[in-house]
C-alpha cells in the first residue's frame, strides 16, 4: 500500500468512528424537564411560531447556520464520475472545512441521479431545511442548468463551488501573480485547459477582472475550442471559441503568459512550459494530481510562478479559501443569492490580504515557513485566522450594497468582533 493511501484510509476510520462528521446537540437534554422542552410538548411552541411567521425558523432552528453540500459524484475532484456514494468522503470533507474555517454546519447529501431535473426538484424541496446550498462536484454541462434553475427557484443562496469558488480564488491568485510577473491583466495571454464547471467560470471572472477575452484560448479533452468547431461543443464552450490556428494545447501555450489547469493530471509537458513567455504563471489546479508537478515545473524553468490545488505545496489555489468564508458572510446577512459583486469582493479581499504581513501564529501552522507576498505566496493560507474577517466581511458588505441582504448589517466593527468571537474556539 502506498504511504498516502495508508495514512488517508487510517485517518478516515480513526477512533473506531468511520467518516469525518457527526451531529452534536447544542441544547441540554439530560432531564425530563429538558426533554419536554426539546421534544413534546415544548417543541410545539416553536412549530407554531414558525407556522405563523417563516422568519422565526431563523430564531428557533439551526436553519440559518446550516448548509447542504450536494453532489451526485459526476466530477469528484479530477477523478471523474465515480458515483454519488464515492463522493461522500469529499462532501464530508467540505463539511469539515465549512465548520473548521467558518463555523458553518453542514449536512452532506449525495444524490444517486444524473438527471438535472431530479436534482433541481429534490434540492428545491430541501430548501426549508437549509440556510444555503453548496453544489459540489457535479459535472458540466449539467451543473450550469442545475445551478441556474435553483438560483431562480430558491430564496436562499445556491452556489456551485467548483464554478464560483474556484473562480474567486484563482482570480485572486492571478491578480497577484500578474503583479509579481510585472505584467498587466489586460496584456496577459492565457490558456485555460478544461472547459467544464471550473474552467468556464474562472475564465469569465478573469475577464471581469481585466483580462481581454480575445487573449484567452480554452481547451477541452479534444484540444483548442476554435471558431467553427463542431465536436463536443457542450455547455458554454461556444462563448469562448476563438479565431485561431492553434488546435492542440501545445500550439495554444506557445508564448502564453499563463496556463490555468482545470482538467486532468500531467497534460502540461516540460516542452510546453519551455515554450511559454517569461515568468510563466502555471496554476495546475487539477486534484489530487496537477497538470504538471511542481518538481517538474521548477526543474524546467527558474522563472515559473507555480501553484496547485493541493495543501502540500506552496500556493494552494483551491476553493477551500472560498466556500466557508463566502457562505459565512452570506448567511450572516441572510443573502437571497450570491451576486457577481459578492464574488468579486471575495476575490479582491483575498488578493489584498496576501500583501499583508503574516503573523507568526499563521506561519506556525506551516512549520514556521516564512510567508511573504511573492512567487511562493500568492494567496493567504486557509489557516490564516484573518481570512474570515477579510473575506466574509467583504461578502456580507457587498450583499448589503447590492440589496440582496434580508438582514443587513450596519455596525461593521461589531460584526468583525462577532466573527472573531465565533472563531475563537478554533484558534486555541
Ligand atoms: N483547485 C480547485 O479549487 C479546483 C480544482 N478543480 C479541478 O478542475 C478539474 C475539472 O473539474 P470540473 O470543472 O469540476 O469538472 P468538469 O467535469 O465540469 O469539467 C472537466 C473538463 O476537463 C476537460 N478535460 C478532460 N480531459 C482533458 C484533457 N486531457 N485536456 C484538457 N481538458 C480535459 C473536459 O473536457 P470535455 O468538455 O471535452 O469533456 C471538461 O471540459 C478537476 O481536476 C478538479 O479537481 C475543480 C474545482 C476546484
Ligand atoms: C477542490 C475541488 O473542489 C475540486 O477539485 O473539485
Ligand atoms: Mg469540487
UniProtKB/TrEMBL annotation:
Pfam families: malic, Malic_M
Active site positions, chain numbering: 39, 94
Alphabetical UniProt keywords: Metal-binding, Oxidoreductase
PROSITE patterns: MALIC_ENZYMES (PS00331)
An annotated Gene Ontology molecular function: metal ion binding
Annotated binding of a divalent metal cation, by residue: 136-137, 162
This protein's name: Malate dehydrogenase (Oxaloacetate-decarboxylating)(NADP+)
Gene3D superfamilies recorded: Malic enzyme, N-terminal domain (3.40.50.10380), NAD(P)-binding Rossmann-like Domain (3.40.50.720)
Domain Malic enzyme N-terminal: residue ranges: 18-151
InterPro entries for this protein: Aminoacid_DH-like_N_sf, Malate_Decarboxylase, Malic_enzyme_CS, Malic_N_dom, Malic_N_dom_sf, Malic_NAD-bd, Malic_NAD-bd_bact_type, Malic_OxRdtase
Domain of life assignment: Bacteria
Keyword Oxidoreductase attached: yes
Keyword Oxidoreductase: yes
Amino acid at each position: 500500500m502506498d504511504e498516502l493511501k495508508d495514512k488517508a484510509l487510517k485517518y478516515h476510520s480513526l477512533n473506531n468512528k468511520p467518516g469525518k462528521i457527526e451531529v452534536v446537540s447544542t441544547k441540554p437534554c439530560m432531564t425530563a424537564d429538558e426533554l419536554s422542552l426539546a421534544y413534546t410538548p415544548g417543541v410545539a411552541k416553536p412549530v407554531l411560531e414558525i407556522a405563523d411567521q417563516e422568519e422565526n425558523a431563523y430564531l428557533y432552528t439551526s436553519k440559518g447556520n446550516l448548509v447542504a453540500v450536494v453532489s451526485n459524484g459526476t466530477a469528484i475532484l479530477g477523478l471523474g464520475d465515480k458515483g454519488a456514494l464515492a463522493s461522500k468522503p469529499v462532501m464530508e470533507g467540505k463539511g469539515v472545512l465549512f465548520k473548521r474555517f467558518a463555523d458553518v454546519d453542514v449536512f452532506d447529501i449525495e444524490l444517486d441521479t444524473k438527471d438535472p431535473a431530479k436534482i433541481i426538484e429534490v434540492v428545491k424541496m430541501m430548501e426549508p431545511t437549509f440556510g444555503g446550498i453548496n453544489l459540489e462536484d457535479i459535472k458540466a454541462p449539467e451543473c450550469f442548468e442545475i445551478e441556474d434553475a435553483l438560483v431562480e427557484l430558491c430564496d436562499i443562496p445556491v452556489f456551485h463551488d467548483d464554478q464560483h469558488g474556484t473562480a474567486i480564488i484563482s482570480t485572486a491568485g492571478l491578480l497577484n501573480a500578474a503583479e509579481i510577473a510585472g505584467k498587466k491583466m489586460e496584456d496577459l495571454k492565457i490558456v485555460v485547459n478544461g472547459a467544464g464547471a471550473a474552467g468556464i467560470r474562472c475564465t469569465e471572472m478573469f475577464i471581469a477582472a481585466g483580462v481581454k477575452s480575445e487573449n484567452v484560448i480554452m481547451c477541452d479533452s479534444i484540444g483548442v475550442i476554435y471558431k467553427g468547431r463542431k465536436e463536443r461543443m457542450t455547455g458554454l464552450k461556444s462563448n469562448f471559441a476563438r479565431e485561431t490556428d492553434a488546435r492542440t494545447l501545445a500550439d495554444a501555450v506557445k508564448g502564453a503568459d499563463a496556463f490555468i489547469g482545470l482538467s486532468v493530471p500531467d497534460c502540461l509537458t516540460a516542452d510546453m512550459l519551455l515554450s511559454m513567455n517569461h515568468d510563466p504563471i502555471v496554476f495546475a489546479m487539477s486534484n489530487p494530481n496537477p497538470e504538471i508537478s511542481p518538481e517538474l515545473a521548477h526543474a524546467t524553468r527558474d522563472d515559473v510562478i507555480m501553484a496547485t490545488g493541493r495543501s502540500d505545496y506552496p500556493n494552494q489555489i483551491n476553493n477551500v479559501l472560498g466556500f466557508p468564508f463566502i457562505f459565512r458572510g452570506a448567511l450572516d446577512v441572510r443573502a437571497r443569492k450570491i451576486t457577481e459583486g459578492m464574488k468579486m469582493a471575495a476575490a479582491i479581499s483575498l488578493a489584498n490580504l496576501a500583501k499583508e504581513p503574516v503573523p507568526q501564529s499563521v506561519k506556525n501552522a506551516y512549520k514556521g515557513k516564512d510567508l511573504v507576498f511573492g512567487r511562493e505566496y500568492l494567496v493567504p493560507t486557509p489557516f490564516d485566522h484573518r481570512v474570515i474577517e477579510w473575506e466574509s466581511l467583504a461578502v456580507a458588505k457587498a450583499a448589503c450594497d447590492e440589496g440582496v441582504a434580508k438582514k443587513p448589517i450596519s455596525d461593521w466593527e461589531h460584526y468583525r468582533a462577532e466573527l472573531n468571537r465565533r472563531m475563537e474556539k478554533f484558534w486555541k
